[in-house]
Design a protein that fits this description.
The protein contains five helices and five strands; from the N terminus they run H-H-H-E-H-E-E-H-E-E. With 178 residues, it is an alpha+beta fold. Helix 3 packs antiparallel against helix 4. The chain is elongated. It starts with a helix and ends with a strand.
Length: 178
């Protein structure tokens, strides 16, 4: 009987471990979805306010461009229920974010992306870079007296000594006050 009790315990332990892993995976998915749902309402308010002022000043072409870019930004943000996107899509999303911010701040933000083509199709969690870019702008560049500067996004593959696999490393830097 001892052998069958040991097997029963091992089976129960394995089942519990599988259930715990599934619960942890679901928690990660839920957390990412919650982050995706928290697109900053102040950003949307500021963009709509900017578009309103453009419309009142008779800047029809600029209004059209702003609405189209804002629409693309939210289409990428809210599209599908996917929690992962390609690096290319995430970079397109943050590029639109900076473009929209530049419409508000008179093109004073230079944005440089230095990411090799060979990693563009790799997957990363959706909206993982945008809050970092937002932080670089709001607490770095826009805190300067001139309210202008540069944000640089770089990425590369690097061997992980522990796992023995390639990791993708991102660096986001700015020349703001921080």
């Amino acid at each position: 009987h001892e052998g069958s009790i040991g097997n029963l315990c091992n089976d129960q332990i394995e089942t519990l471990m599988d259930e715990q892993a599934a619960t942890a995976d679901q928690l990660r998915v839920t957390e990412v979805q919650a982050l995706q749902a928290q697109i900053n309402p102040h950003f949307l308010y500021n963009m709509l306010d900017m578009i309103n002022w453009m419309a009142l000043s008779g800047s029809g072409r600029e209004v059209s461009d702003a609405v189209q870019n804002l629409s693309k930004f939210y289409r990428l943000s809210l599209s599908k229920k996917e929690i992962y996107v390609t690096i290319e899509d995430e970079l397109r999303h943050i590029d639109l974010y900076v473009l929209l911010q530049n419409m508000r701040f008179d093109d004073k933000i230079d944005f440089i992306i230095d990411v090799p083509d060979e990693i563009m199709e790799c997957s990363i969690p959706k909206l993982v870079l945008q809050p970092i870019i937002e932080n670089a702008l709001l607490h770095g560049i826009l805190e300067k007296n001139t309210r202008e500067g540069t944000v640089v996004v770089m990425a590369w593959e690097e061997m992980n000594e522990v796992s023995g696999k390639e990791d993708i490393v991102f660096t986001i830097s700015d020349d703001g006050v921080g």
